[in-house]
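Subject: sequence -> structure tokens, single chain

Hey, anyone have a minute? Need the predicted structure for the following. Not urgent.
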Amino acid sequence: MSNEMTFEQAMSRLEQIVKALEGGNVPLEDLISLFDEGTKLVKLCTERLDKAEEKVKLLQMKDGVLTEGDFNE
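Reply:
Had a minute. Here:
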């Protein structure tokens, strides 16, 4: 797994891991490895989402003028 992975690639790989784990036919050593990879992917996705949230701005109309406001406003 690489930090160069896009959010979409990470989510896709995470979905593959979940399907493999749900299948129940994964040897224990592979299961541990997949679980470890999955937790790293969750962390990567969470970090990417947090960064995206920080960048998101809401456009607000004030006195007929569009202005930018913080996401949490």
